[in-house]
Amino acid sequence: MSKSILIVEDEETLRESIRRIFTKEGYIVDTTGTAEEALTLVGENFYDIIITDIILPGMDGLEMLERVKELHPEQIFIVITAYASIDTAVKALRLGAYDYIMKPIIHEEIKQVVRNAITEKNLKAENRLLKQALSKEYDFSKVIGESKQIKAVLEEIKKIADSKSNVLLLGETGTGKELFARVIHNNSSRADMPFVPINCSAIPESLLESELFGHIKGSFTGAVTNKKGLFEEADGGTVFLDEIGDLPPSFQVKLLRVLEDQMVRPVGSTKFREVDIRFITATNRNLYEAVKEGRFREDLYYRINVITLELPPLRDRKEDIPLLARYYLNKYTRDFGKEDKELTPEALSLLVGYRWPGNIRELQNVLERAVLISEGRYIKPEHFPDNIRMGDSFVEDSLKKGLSIEEYTRAFILKYQHVYSEQELADRLGITRKTLWEKRKKLGIKKP
Questions:
Q1: CATH topology of domain 140-312
Q2: What is the pLDDT of residues 86-98, one digit of tens each?
Q3: What angle do CA 361, 364, 367 make, to 5 degrees?
Q4: Cα–Cα distance for residue pair 110/100, rounded to 1 Å
Q5: How many CB atoms lie within 10 A of CB 286?
Q6: In sequence order, what are the beta bridge partners of 214?
Q7: Residue 157 contacts residue 315 (beta carbons within 8 Å)
Q8: Which of 151, 347, 385, 408 is paired with 165 by a 20 to 30 Å CA distance?
């Protein structure tokens, strides 16, 4: 995707000259003549690089740099001025400027400085991803996303992670329920104790009690030795019961007793053993409906449902898809020893527009396959499965939904703002860039 630059220069001729330099290089460029207007633009948009003159009417470039850095410490600044001064240069660098360029501007020099800055930024981002991939701890950085839905879930986790209360995670298949369970565990006082994940639907009913409670030798055919159950293995830590809605009714009452008394009795034994376990449960079913229909015990439902966290499906956090895609592309290119990969705008558009019934797990599978079968640097639509490439077009889908013009405009911006520049978005909507800005403001849509 194209990188974005904000140029803050009060000399119109120089401002336009720099704009032309980087527009020809394929950058998305915004310009302004004052620091005050620049602060407004920074509040509404994301820029990879800000190039600013130091001497400006009103607020100067150094004061603007300080203010922006307070809000966005990672923002890259390149400072230019006609006033040669070691003191000014040192002050700019101390305030966090990436580099310092003197007028008159040499085209190749400023282009190289920008290229160097972007390369360094990309390396830092890739290093962060690599550290996350190598990290053994499931801290908050393991959760990839900047959407308001994900941020809200993380805020809730910070509040409840270290409590003793049981947690119920609700979400569709593939939304990352085990990941969030591990994040809760690893940010609690139990982090040094076991985390034991159990998929309730994967264990045959006949083996459930033996697997979870353990058994003693001779308790049934095949019990040739004593075996400690998974609940005892998790003593002092956390048990994650995935797909708890699939538990058979006969076992639900036995689980309820563990939750209430923190005691387990191995199959064939007459003695109870005390355990200290925090339970995190998860389901993609509507447990409340299951309770009303008599398929799930009401008392068990209220016991596990002390704290409820709802995990959003991927289709409701589309702004996170580019971040997730970049993370998994980096992961799979490393895993398979492939060269770095990038999504073409058309490929990214398909990913953002797809509904992802399998959520993040499906996205992982699609990108893993694409990395394996693609040749060269770019992943294109042809590397995706047919169900993604041949989905309904945006216009057809909008017509089926009966969207109004305003609803269509909002949906179009949200879907394609990660793919096209502001000018390209405006062109495709048949409006001016100023009108697009006004519509963003009216519809409450901030630039990514």
A1: Rossmann fold (3.40.50)
A2: 677 778 888 999 9
A3: 150
A4: 10
A5: 13
A6: 228
A7: no
A8: 151
Q: How far is CA 246 from CA 25, 146, 252, in A?
A: 57, 32, 10
Give me 387's structure tokens.
């169900």
pTM of the entire structure?
0.58
Question: Which structure tokens are listed for 420?
Answer: 């096209």
- 4-132 and 140-312: identical CATH topology: yes
Residue 16, number of CB atoms within 10 A of its CB:
13
Distance CA 369, CA 383 (A): 8
Distance between CA 325 and CA 342 in Å, rounded? 9
User: Is the CATH code 1.10.8.60 the one for domain 315-443?
Assistant: yes
So where are the chain's domains?
4-132, 140-312, 315-443
Pairing of strands 4-8, 238-242: unpaired
Distance CA 108, CA 21 (A): 9
**CA 142, CA 186: separation in Å to the nearest integer?**
11
CATH domain 4-132 topology: Rossmann fold (3.40.50)
Query: Is the predicted pLDDT of residue 183 greater than 60, yes or no?
Result: yes
Surface-to-core class of residue 292, CB atoms within 10 Å of its CB (0-12 exposed, 13-18 middle, 19+ buried): exposed
What pLDDT was estimated at residue 396?
A: 59
Rounded CA gap, 111 and 21, in Å? Answer: 8
| Burial classification of residue 6, based on how many CB atoms lie within 10 Å of its CB (0-12 exposed, 13-18 middle, 19 or more buried) | buried
Q: How far apart are CA 94 and CA 120, in angstroms?
A: 18
CA distance 342 to 395: 26
Distances (CA, A) of 108 to 21, 113, 156: 9, 9, 50
* DSSP string for 195-239: EEEEETTTS-HHHHHHHHHEE-TTSSTT--S-EE-HHHHTTTSEE
Which two three-digit tokens encode residue 123? 């390396």
CB-based burial label for 22 (10 Å; 0-12, 13-18, 19+): buried
CA angle 142, 143, 145 (to 5 degrees): 135
Q: How far apart are CA 389 and CA 382, in angstroms?
A: 7
- What is the DSSP secondary structure assignment for residue 87, as one 8-state letter? H
In angstroms, rounded to a whole number, what is the distance separating the alpha carbons of residues 110 and 187? 45
200-247: per-residue pLDDT in tens?
Answer: 988 888 889 999 999 888 888 877 777 888 998 899 999 999 999 989
